[in-house]
Amino acid sequence: MEKAVIYKEKEEFKEVHLVLKNASSKQFYEFSFEMDDFPNIKIKSIANLQETGLTFDNNKISGIPYTSSVHELDIEFYHIRDQNSTEIKTVHLLVNADPKDLWKNIPSDINDIYYKPDEASYQGQFSDRKITIVSKRGRSHAHEGKFRDDDFAVNELPGGWSIVSVADGAGSAVMAREGSRLAVGSVNSFFNSNEILNEISNNIEIVYNASDSSKEIRSEAGENVLKLLYKGVRHVYDVLDQAAAEHSLSVKDFHTTLIFALTKKFDFGYVILTFGVGDCPINLINPEFSEVMLLNTMDVGEFGGGTRFITMKEIFNHDMVSRFGMTCVNDFSYLVLMTDGIYDPKFITENKLEDIESWKTFFDDLNGNNDDRTKVDFINDTDIDQQLLTWTDFWSRGNHDDRTLAIIY
Fold first, then answer.
1. Max CA distance (Å), the chain
2. pLDDT tens for residues 98-109?
3. CA 220 to chain centre
């Protein structure tokens, strides 16, 4: 009678329709065998699993499969009351192709007069903090051998100031890649001046640290800071306009967005001066990771219709003042700048940029909670720029723009 029961239970397991969930090539896979309906059946091993790149342990298949294919797996199992007699049950595992492999990666023309590398990275000091920033050509550009239109620049400036700027060249502009390069370089260069920075610092001291100053004096000092920021932004426009004239082109051919954060730590706190035109955000997260501030006004609209560029003369009107920000905080955990190649897939909508839970999810993603299991380690940060560059290769269906991300930590 016992042998009959053992035979029956083994046959029932052998005949049950067992479907393994599909895997994806180069992405972490995990499947657990639910054996509640077969409490007396134990899986000993799975043959042919090694060729997939997966392993079996404790009733679980896991790992990262190598290539796409349909694999025939032989499950070797036994009955707990007849452990010396094993049986084989065959199942199939489908490993789908990695979507990334369907995209070509054609190098851009190294001989082009305005050539720029397809990716760039940087790590270093930023005020009394650290910074890592990366920029990677999007798959849509790589597929056609086009250039990266994003760009960035980071500089340590006199008097304890630091600046980071990020630009996203418009895909429709023939000189977008040069426009973004000129934009970040020229704004950083403008503020690399002892005279300008001393004037900014003196006015900042009046705004935040001169308790004996009247409200009118503090207001005037704040306006003086904004005027200097305005001059820096206007300088960028003039540089791009001149470049267009020199090449018999329109300044529209250099269309690019621009954001920057000019930062210094004073005795009374960190002062962060910001500017933004276009759809790239600047965010500041507090030390407790309980609050996030969006430090710039973003130009967004359906199908990008609301996007504005530094090359548009009409932005230099009475509304220009709203594009500048002056923030003072005792401390912060992260200051983040990014282009829409990061923002669109990771935040989707503008309102989530001010949602702390969305930012917790974002940093959880950076910490390795993603399909690729790629992690950016802000503690052991010897090669953090390369870690971040690897992370930016994430897959997001329909989101294949250039990706630039700067994190001050």
1. 99
2. 888 889 999 999
3. 38
> Please, what is the angle between helix 215-246 and helix 176-190, to 10°?
140
Q: Annotate 180-202 with b (16+ C-beta within 10 A) or e (fewer).
A: bbbbbbbbbbbbeeeebbeebbe
Residue 314 CB partners (closer than 8 Å, separation 6+): none
pLDDT in tens, 158-194: 999 999 999 999 989 999 999 999 999 999 999 999 9
Rounded CA-CA distance 142/308 in Å is 25
Give the per-residue pLDDT at 307: 82
The pLDDT, as a whole number, for residue 227 is: 97
Residues whose CB falls within 8 Å of the CB of residue 238, separated by 6 or more in sequence, listed in order: none
- Report, as an integer, the average pLDDT of 349-357: 95
- Contacts within 8 Å (CB) and 24+ apart, 195-201: 196/228, 196/232, 197/157, 197/158, 197/159, 197/161, 198/159, 199/224, 199/228, 200/161, 200/225, 200/228, 200/262, 200/273, 201/159, 201/161, 201/264
One-letter amino acid at 144 equals E
β-strand partners of 292: 285
Q: What is the pLDDT of residues 374-396, one digit of tens each?
A: 999 999 999 999 999 999 999 99
- Please state, in angstroms and rounded to a whole number, the distance separating the CA atoms of residues 16 and 38: 10
Domains of the chain listed by start with CATH number: 2-101 (2.60.40), 103-408 (3.60.40.10)
Give the Cα separation of 328 and 264 in Å (integer).
Answer: 10
Reported as a single tens digit per residue, the pLDDT across 186-233 is: 999 999 999 999 999 999 999 998 887 899 999 999 999 999 999 999
pTM of the full structure: 0.82
